[in-house]
From TrEMBL:
Gene3D superfamilies, per database record: Aspartate Aminotransferase, domain 1 (3.90.1150.10), Type I PLP-dependent aspartate aminotransferase-like (Major domain) (3.40.640.10)
Protein name: Pyridoxal-dependent decarboxylase
Cofactor: pyridoxal 5'-phosphate
The UniProt record lists the keyword Zinc: no
Protein's organism: Archangium lansingense
Keywords: Decarboxylase, Lyase, Pyridoxal phosphate
SUPFAM superfamilies listed in its UniProt record: PLP-dependent transferases (SSF53383)
A Pfam family recorded for this sequence: Pyridoxal_deC
Family: Belongs to the group II decarboxylase family.
């Protein structure tokens, strides 16, 4: 997986149970590498308060992780996003300055490759440039979208991911594996031991003699199932083309769905999809704008209760949107047309 992303020789990682655990693991490694003090043994008060720069659209587990590490709410410094909910690279300098003015030591930037709400892909190369300039850890939350690297048609969306210090990639999303199988990948493989090490990197200068197979030294879990077996068996038996074709077909299908929403006349598209996450809302004639948010809530409840379709909802720009993740490889254009017709009947 590290090789597919373009990470260099010497990279490596570990499998863990879900994106939340994966992102926490990566941030713990970032803390050991960049804090400048031994927070593992001394705690968060052993040095200046830390923070990470994070796009406003990032998954909630990042804020949860920094709170678990004892950094408090200001452990996350938000970075504005643009109209497509992508991190604005030009806003990073001011976010960095704001964190320092607040008395915080920034140690990392988190970028998204397939954000949870809309599936947005941040400009990873630009973030990598910023991190290199300021000696910050560069982490990519690619839990959902890192699989784009498998697709020749959509690989460009993760350009720059090969420059990351750490990447989280969920195989149980676009690689069709059973949950949970999350890879936490590190540009320097020994960093995976540092996340839970008893000493910081500056104490042993990156020298590591521990075996890669000592998984309990590198993950939150002690006892866990052999999740690698499922992924390895599929890759060794089927190769990567099946998964590459699935990613490409799913992204294509989502784009066709977005085009039908735009041309429908009674649906509104939140943003053109970067991947397989599509946010939209039903806007039938005769419904006042002030009632559209409540309508989306009722529509979702109606469809989920009926059992025919499953939708979630999200809030973007202060408005409620329906959100679908086109991820089942058996989903067709006809299925998505049926979804729209079911929403029309449910009004």
């Amino acid at each position: 997986m590290a090789g597919v992303l373009g990470l260099p020789e010497g990279s490596g990682g570990v499998l863990t149970s879900g994106g939340s655990a994966g992102n926490l693991t990566a941030l713990l490694a970032a803390r050991q590498a960049k804090a400048g003090f031994d927070a593992w043994n001394g705690g968060p008060t052993a040095g200046p308060p830390l923070t990470v720069l994070v796009p406003e659209s990032t998954h909630y587990c990042i804020a949860r992780s920094v709170r678990m590490m004892g950094w408090g709410s200001e452990g996350v410094t938000p970075v504005p996003v643009d109209a497509r909910y992508r991190l604005r690279p030009e806003a990073l300098e001011e976010a960095l300055a704001a964190a320092k003015r607040a008395g915080r030591r920034p140690i990392a930037v988190v970028a998204s490759a397939g954000s949870t709400a809309t599936g947005a892909f941040d400009a990873l190369d630009a973030v990598a440039d910023f991190c290199a300039k300021h000696d910050l850890w560069f982490h990519v939350d690619g839990a959902h979208g890192a699989s784009a690297a498998l697709s020749p048609r959509y690989r460009h969306q993760v350009k720059g991911i090969e420059r990351a210090d750490s990447v989280v990639w969920d195989a149980h999303k676009l690689m069709m594996m059973p949950a949970l199988i999350t890879a936490v990948l590190f540009r320097e493989s020994h960093r995976s031991f540092e996340a839970f090490a008893q000493e910081a990197s500056y104490l042993f200068n990156g020298q590591d003699t521990r075996r890669w197979s000592d998984v309990a030294l590198r993950t939150l879990e002690c006892t866990k199932e052999m999740m690698a077996l499922k992924l390895y068996t599929c890759l060794s038996t089927l190769g990567t083309k099946l998964f590459a074709d699935s990613v490409t077909d799913t992204f294509d299908l989502s784009r066709r769905f977005a085009e039908r929403l735009q041309s429908s006349g009674d649906f509104e598209l939140a943003v053109s999809p970067d991947c397989n996450i599509v946010c939209f809302r039903h806007t039938p004639q005769g419904i006042p704008t002030s009632e559209l948010d409540a309508l989306q809530v009722r529509l979702r409840e109606s469809l989920v209760t009926s059992g025919d379709f499953y939708l979630v909802q999200t809030t973007l720009g202060g408005r409620v949107w329906l959100r679908t993740t086109v991820i089942n490889p058996l989903t067709t254009d006809e299925d998505l047309d049926a979804l729209l017709n079911a929403l029309r009947r449910a009004v």
